[in-house]
Amino acid sequence: MATVLYITAHPLDPEESFSLAVGKEFIEAYREANPRDEVIHLDLYKENIPQIDADVLRGWGKLRSGLSFDQLSDAEKSKVARLGEIVDQFVAADKYVYVSPMWNFTLPPVLKAYTDATSIAGKTFKYTENGPVGLLHGKKALHIQASGSVYSEGPLASIEMGYRYLKNILQFYGIPNMEAIFVEGTAVRSAEQVKAKAIAQAKEVAKRWSLVESIL
């Protein structure tokens, strides 16, 4: 049995969002093909994701200096503990499905905050004499991204910073490849045709997303 984090970053419903509509079809097909797997839905707009602010930085600094957790302020305790919960849940999972729109060429701020929460030395990566090394081997990831124009190829590809950002972050964690389903061109093509094509692709990907293969 595998644990899948289904991570959505859109404030609307699947009926109103192209990315969520495709994501919903993917996860339903995945559950049907993998009934023993545990799927945990993280709606980032409903989750408590602390910003890395002064409380967090000071709290982490106190812990590194040798102070105990009980010696942190109430605000520091709350935020540091919550960030620990987020990264521990992330590390424990086997597969990750990110669903988001492209906003201003990149991710919604709440998804960036989530990646900040999971980018913790000693948890998802470590520092070595030869540079940072990812710690999350043998895991899988998928990004479903919707956009009004086409960014996966063509003249706008160089300014696409949503999928590329997540791909680079996960490679940093030790996950070499992240698949993508682009629901793109909804503002310049037939939106319903774009969505239908992406849903068909999502169902196919879901069927073959079975066992996690170890990466040596």
UniProtKB/TrEMBL annotation:
Keywords: Flavoprotein, FMN, NAD, Oxidoreductase
Residues of the Flavodoxin-like fold domain: 3-204
Cofactor dependence: FMN
UniProt-listed Enzyme Commission number(s): 1.6.5.-, 1.7.1.17
Pfam families in alphabetical order: Flavodoxin_2 (PF02525)
Keyword Manganese: no
Catalytic activity: 2 a quinone + NADH + H(+) = 2 a 1,4-benzosemiquinone + NAD(+); N,N-dimethyl-1,4-phenylenediamine + anthranilate + 2 NAD(+) = 2-(4-dimethylaminophenyl)diazenylbenzoate + 2 NADH + 2 H(+)
Gene3D superfamilies xref list: 3.40.50.360
Residues that hold FMN according to the record: 17-19, 102-105
Bound cofactor: record note: Binds 1 FMN per subunit.
Enzyme class: oxidoreductase
Keyword field contains Acetylation: no
Similarity-based family: Belongs to the azoreductase type 1 family.
Subunit field text: Homodimer.
NCBIfam families for this protein: PRK13556.1 (NF010075)
Function: Quinone reductase that provides resistance to thiol-specific stress caused by electrophilic quinones. Also exhibits azoreductase activity. Catalyzes the reductive cleavage of the azo bond in aromatic azo compounds to the corresponding amines.
Protein name from the UniProt record: FMN dependent NADH:quinone oxidoreductase
Source organism (scientific name): Paenibacillus anseongense
Gene of this entry: azoR
